[in-house]
Design brief:
The protein is built from 18 helices and no strands. By secondary structure, the chain is mostly helical. The longest helix is centred in the N-terminal third of the chain and has 53 residues.
Length: 489
């Protein structure tokens, strides 16, 4: 039995087993890693207060926005092409050329941080930690480059281990540094060192792949890589407007304290955003193969993946809206209750964001990434325009509504385009899911009204939801049971 478990968790034997294994490891790694980081984030937010937390969040938000420019689709291209190549010589050239492109992009982003960012930052206290935050940008960029190689080889157990190590280092160092001196600068230093440890671990794990990293650059591959990646790059940049500009624009019109409130509301939602990403990363290599070899299997995979995403997203969104005040108070304390409305609105984006991750990967698997430009153009520009209209008048609540509206409009376009490429339908799965979610939401509202502790309410509501799906023999639940039995046997 032990050998079977080890074989399942550490070796690739079939498409279904590989997807299941990778999903397992990415789920464990991302959930455990991000829960670790969430713990120190919550502690730091309480220690630093809304204003101090707002300064840190603004700096990291600026860095996250610039990180978009350190990829430009290079990592996705590397994962896609390396997953299809069995030629070691070509792989070495692809890896080396991609690495030097990454170095050039990271250098450009670093120059922007040093020369331009201090001039556009609206919160003076942010300038004191920008150079430290720059290290986070550099370390994160090269760690993600390494993860692209790991994903191509479908060895997500390595990525999971590194991600957990990185976040464990951030937690330990964050607690130690905040204990030594509870201020923004010390916490940022701890954050940077933790990400650096993760980057070193990544390069150590990939040392065999990277032995010839510096000696196989070929200019012949630069143009094909960039040509394949630029549509994805533009969509990523525009998508960055959708994700990262809210905090930056709030900092322009409002106070650091309000930035802190909004960041507190956003953090739990961003933690949830990783759930569809886990499935998408695991399924992407399979989608890339099916897009070429089998339209029917591609359609079935899309339907099941997106339906499963909604099975998770709908109860999360409804539960977040109903229990919003209790969740914010539990995580951040009474002083962060002004973040409640923003949190409730942002929780609704879960139902929009979750399926979009799978749809985006499907577009990319079909090598139609140019479609993502329009998708991101719609979302990014609409987000910025509405931010400038709504934030001055409605503050952080206006920013949350902006995010929901922009994501919804952009995703209408995305759904239509994927259906044009390969028509699929998820409606047969949605009846039981919606019924179970509505019953769960009503029960959660009753439990909240009766002043049940929020964790007990969440537990009872979850048991009720999945119990209904199980008792009504929801096909997705039945298929999960069947898959688990097959893996165990």
């Amino acid at each position: 039995m032990i050998q079977k478990i080890k074989g399942f968790l550490f070796h690739n034997t079939s498409v279904r087993q590989t997807v299941a294994k990778n999903t397992f490891w990415l789920t464990v790694g991302n959930i455990l890693g991000r829960l670790l980081r969430a713990g120190v984030v919550i502690y730091a937010a309480r220690v630093l207060g809304a204003e101090g937390w707002g300064v840190f969040s603004y700096a990291i938000g600026l860095i996250a926005f610039l990180t978009i420019f350190t990829d430009l689709g290079i990592r996705a291209i590397l994962t896609r092409e390396a997953s299809k190549s069995d030629d070691d010589d070509h792989l070495a050239k692809l890896l080396s050329t991609s690495f030097f492109i990454e170095v050039a992009l990271v250098s450009l982003a670093s120059l922007i941080v040093v020369a331009i960012a201090p001039r556009i930052t609206s919160l003076p206290a942010v300038n004191e930690i920008l150079l430290i935050a720059l290290l986070v940008l550099i370390f994160d960029s090269f760690r993600e480059f390494g993860f692209a190689v790991i994903r191509a080889k479908e060895k997500m157990q390595q990525e999971a281990g590194i991600f957990i190590l990185t976040n464990f280092a951030i937690v330990v160092l964050g607690l130690v540094f905040l204990k030594i001196s509870p201020n923004v600068k010390y916490f940022t230093i701890a954050y940077a060192i933790g990400t650096g440890i993760g980057t070193m671990a990544t390069f150590y794990v990939l040392r065999d792949y990277f032995k010839r990293l510096l000696f196989n650059f070929t200019s012949k591959l630069v143009k094909p890589i960039i040509a394949s990646g630029w549509p994805f790059a533009i969509s990523a940049m525009l998508g960055g407007l959708l994700i990262n500009t809210d905090v930056l624009i709030i900092g322009i019109f409002r106070t650091a304290e309000e930035v802190g409130y909004y960041s507190a509301a956003l953090r739990p939602v961003q933690l949830l955003y990783i759930l569809p990403t886990i499935l998408a990363i695991s399924v992407f290599p399979t989608l890339s193969r099916l897009a070429i070899n089998s339209q029917d299997k591609m359609r079935v995979t899309l339907e099941k993946s997106i339906s499963f995403i909604f099975l998770i997203a709908i109860p999360l969104a409804l539960g977040g809206v109903i229990l919003g005040p209790e969740i914010i108070e539990l995580l951040f304390g009474n002083s962060y209750l002004p973040a409640t409305l923003s949190f409730q609105v942002l929780m609704l984006t879960v139902m929009v964001n979750f399926p979009a991750v799978i749809l985006t990967d499907a577009i990319f698997a079909y090598d139609k990434q140019k479609l993502l430009i329009v998708f991101s153009l719609i979302g990014g520009i609409l987000n910025v325009v509405l931010d400038f209209i709504l934030i001055p008048k409605y503050g952080i609540a206006g920013s949350a509504w902006t995010t929901l509206i922009a994501q919804s409009v952009a995703n209408i376009y995305l759904w239509r385009k994927v259906n044009q490429v390969n028509a699929f339908s998820i409606f047969p799965h949605m009846k039981k899911i919606m019924l179970a979610a509505l019953i769960m939401a009503g029960a959660a509202g009753v439990f909240s009204f009766l002043e049940f502790p929020v964790l007990i309410t969440i537990g009872l509501a979850s048991v009720l939801y999945f119990g209904i799906l199980y008792s009504t023999k929801e096909p997705l639940i039945e298929e999960m049971k069947s898959a688990i039995r097959m893996k165990v046997s």
